[in-house]
């Protein structure tokens, strides 16, 4: 276990919507240093990126943008389609959470 981790820092998935912004504010109010992270899974979602960046700016937290479109497509979407076409009911979160 890495004991040098700063337990007062949090990276939060930030969409720019009410839920993630409220979560960031709650964490801030509890003394956490919050960083807003926007994962672009569709490549070029400028509207989503702008909303998340605006929310981060409004509440005064650093904003991190990551384009994960290719990884998401190759890992999650491809598996989902393969499983679905084989007559199974895939759970995309099982592939997305540990990989993306």
Key features of this structure:
single chain, 100 residues, alpha/beta, Rossmann fold, 2 domains, three-stranded parallel beta sheet, 3 strands, 18% strand
Give the count of structural domains: 2
Beta percentage is 15-25%
Which structural class matches the secondary elements? alpha/beta
Total E-strand runs: 3
Instruction: Return the average pLDDT rounded to an integer.
Output: 92
* Rg: 16 Å
CATH topology of the largest domain: Rossmann fold
- Number of discrete helical segments: 4
Detail the poorly predicted runs. Answer: none
Amino- and carboxy-terminal Cα gap: 22 Å
CATH class of the largest domain: Alpha Beta
Helix content: 40-55%
The CATH H-level superfamily of the largest domain is HUPs
Strand order of the largest sheet: 1-2-3
- CATH architecture name of the largest domain: 3-Layer(aba) Sandwich
* Biggest pleated sheet: 3 strands, parallel
Label the overall shape. elongated
Please provide the ordered H/E string of secondary-structure elements: EHEHEHH
């Amino acid at each position: 276990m890495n004991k040098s981790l700063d337990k007062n820092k949090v990276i939060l998935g930030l969409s720019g919507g009410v839920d993630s912004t409220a979560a960031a504010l709650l964490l801030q109010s509890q003394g956490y240093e919050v960083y807003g992270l926007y994962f672009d899974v569709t490549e070029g979602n400028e509207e989503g990126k702008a909303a998340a960046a605006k929310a981060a700016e409004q509440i005064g937290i650093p904003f991190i943008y990551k384009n994960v479109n290719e990884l998401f497509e190759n890992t999650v979407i491809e598996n989902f389609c393969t499983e679905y076409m084989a007559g199974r009911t895939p759970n995309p979160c099982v592939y997305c959470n540990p990989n993306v």
